[in-house]
TrEMBL record:
Residues 33-215 form the Helicase ATP-binding domain. Keywords: ATP-binding, Coiled coil, DNA-binding, Helicase, Hydrolase, Isomerase, Metal-binding, Nucleotide-binding, Nucleus. The lineage of its organism: Eukaryota, Fungi, Dikarya, Basidiomycota, Agaricomycotina. This is ATP-dependent DNA helicase. One of its GO terms (molecular function) is metal ion binding. The chain holds residues 150 to 718 of 862 of the full protein. Its EC number is 5.6.2.4. It comes from Fibroporia radiculosa. It is an enzyme of class 5 (isomerase). Residues 255-403 form the Helicase C-terminal domain.
């Protein structure tokens, strides 16, 4: 078990204090350092700000060769190098922005190391490179081979390792090329680091990097598999909540502006939007409300992006309105709030994006604005993505619940999707399964919502969906809700011009015993609930302007619709 004391543990602590000024290990740092000293392949999943860097920087000080760190983030690399040099550790970086002279000097030093010529003081302990360097720079591999032959290549560290997988949402093609590492340097152990790593991504990562078969950190003796570490996902400084999203755009902007002014008037924050256009609109509309905003998405030019980063760091821009393209490069610790203008495509996305708040450990707010209609938009956007249905249903479940602790929801989501069973978590990790006590659902209290028996309205909604299906009408979820409430659905395909109960071309009295008597919000929420529980299902129809998603009676619906209205009453 790597979570115990080893012969080198005292020395580790000593150097940790002397070089980095750190007194105690956090989370699974000690375990990862142990496995690292033991030259194992390691996967380490720790939340952002958890202290992943220490897990390779500290062991690197105990070996004579060089640890090669592959990271996609030049700005973060810069910070690390400065930090390390201040601490007196020989560290260099080798990127597209390295000058020819610098590159030659680093080159010479590495060659000298390979020939055993440099005094050990001058030896490079940590060399940071971008994946492009491995994938595209022809001169670099021979240099590594020299080091390897001289046994001066100690370890590969792959930062942001989820970038290898197309299933993750930060996919980088150059990461695929990292498969040469194991091929060319079979004896060099690999440490893969990430803040989120669902099973599909983990599998891709193991395949691409050709890591050894995984073992949990409990197994050690004589077996040489990859050791897997996971720290609790729970970050106690993040306060999660889901707020109802107002119907109109204008009301929504007012609500957001009010929220920011009230809670974070002078703080830095991020607003994640579903599309580039949304990001621009939200930025404009908030700046009209006297909030200093900036925009970031894939179509913004590189120099503009750089300017934005600078202005944001200097505090000239307070709130960045962005798509998920704004992520990897953020090296700002004091992000005090992350708002989601629209539900993201997955719980993983929500966790990762909102996790950019509070990296400095101080309190931060993570707010998701949710209204059921956004489901339709999200569905249309992701129709063609494999596995997107299940992910959307998970995020809807997250958004709709009023009772379960947000942090427990995250913990369950990530543990059910992980190959590690709960029982093998350490007690500290299990702590994440206690209600956090400070998210919206923990603080809501039982008078924060009303419980209702919805069997009758559910049956009525289902009857409408069923009859619509039989008569060839198509409804989106909000259209279904308004028709079931006796309102016109507002579409030419479904709405007739008739009056009263026949507005939607359906006699509600006849098919459903009348209209559903709940508010629009409630009926929509109920429809979403029925969808994620299999009573309604989605159907796709391509139209000239894209793919539309409609809902029809689903798998379990037939069973429910066999009840008559009287049975339910
Ligand atoms: P990550 O890469 O996991 O996002 P970092 O390695 O950048 O996190 O560490 C985040 C911050 O936490 C850094 O400022 C680092 O110095 C600090 N840190 C790391 N480990 C510890 C520890 N054991 N005790 C106190 N601070 C730590
Ligand atoms: Zn909670």
């Amino acid at each position: 078990d790597y979570h115990t004391e080893y012969e080198w543990s005292d020395a580790l602590r000593g150097k940790m204090k002397a070089v980095f000024g750190i007194d105690n290990f956090r989370l699974c740092q000690h375990g990862v350092c142990n496995a690292n000293m033991d030259r194992r392949d390691i996967i380490c999943v720790m939340p952002t700000g958890g202290g992943k860097s220490l897990t390779y920087q500290l062991p690197a000080l105990f070996v004579s060769g060089c640890t090669l760190v592959i990271s996609p983030l030049i700005s973060l690399m810069n910070d690390q190098i400065l930090h390390l040099r201040e601490a007196g550790v020989e560290a260099v970086m080798f990127t597209s922005s390295t000058s020819k002279e610098e590159a030659r000097e680093i080159d010479n030093r590495l060659v000298a190391m390979a020939h055993g010529r440099s005094g050990s003081d001058a030896d490079i302990k940590l060399c940071y490179v971008t994946p492009e360097k491995i994938a595209k720079n022809k001169a670099f591999m021979p240099l590594l081979e020299k080091l390897y032959k001289a046994r001066k290549l100690e370890r590969f560290v792959i930062d942001e390792a989820h970038c290898v997988s197309e299933a993750g949402h930060d996919y980088r093609p150059d990461y695929q090329k990292l498969n040469v590492l194991r091929k060319v340097f079979p004896k060099v152990p690999i440490l893969a680091l990430s803040a989120t790593c669902p099973p599909k991504v983990m599998q891709d990562l193991m395949d691409v990097l050709q890591m050894k078969q995984p073992l949990h950190h409990g197994d050690r003796a004589g077996v040489d598999g990859t050791v897997y570490f996971t720290a609790p996902l729970y970050r106690k400084n993040l306060h999660y909540s889901v707020l109802p999203k107002p119907m109109s755009h204008k009301e929504m902007m007012n609500a957001m502006a009010d929220y920011i002014m009230k809670h974070h008037a002078d703080h830095s924050g991020i607003i994640y939007c579903l599309s580039k256009k949304d990001a621009e609109t939200v930025s404009e509309d908030l700046s009209e409300r006297r909030i200093k905003t900036g925009v970031y998405h894939a179509d913004i030019g590189d120099s503009q992006k750089e300017t934005l980063h600078q202005r944001w760091r200097q505090g000239l821009v307070k709130v960045v309105c962005a798509t998920i393209a704004f992520g990897l490069g953020i090296d700002k610790g004091d992000v005090r709030f992350v708002l989601h203008h629209t539900i993201p495509k997955s719980v993983q996305g929500l966790y990762q994006e909102s996790g950019r708040a509070g990296r400095d450990g101080h309190d931060a707010d993570c707010v998701l604005y949710y209204r059921p209609q956004d489901f339709t938009r999200l569905s249309q956007l992701t129709v063609q993505e494999k596995g997107s249905r299940a992910k959307i249903h998970d995020i809807l479940r997250f958004a709709q619940t009023l009772t379960e602790c947000r942090n427990i929801l995250f913990a369950k989501y990530f543990s059910s999707s992980s190959q590690i069973s709960m029982s093998s978590w350490s007690t500290e990790e299990k702590g994440a399964l206690e209600p956090c006590g400070h998210c919206d659902n923990c603080t809501r209290g039982s008078d924060g919502f009303v419980r209702r028996d919805v069997r009758l309205p559910a049956w009525q909604i289902l009857r409408v969906a069923e009859v619509a299906q039989q008569t060839g009408k198509r409804f989106t979820i909000n259209q279904l809700a308004s028709v079931a409430r006796g309102r016109s659905s507002g579409t030419s395909s479904a709405a007739s011009k008739g009056k009263g109960k026949e507005k939607a071309g359906m006699d509600l009295d006849e098919i459903a015993g009348g209209a559903v008597e709940l508010s629009n919000d409630d009926v929509e929420a109920l429809c979403v609930d029925m969808l994620i529980n299999g009573y309604l299902k989605e159907e796709y129809h391509s139209q000239s302007y894209g793919i539309n998603v409609y809902v029809v009676a689903g798998a379990k619906a037939v069973r429910l619709s066999r009840f008559s209205r009287e049975d339910i009453e």
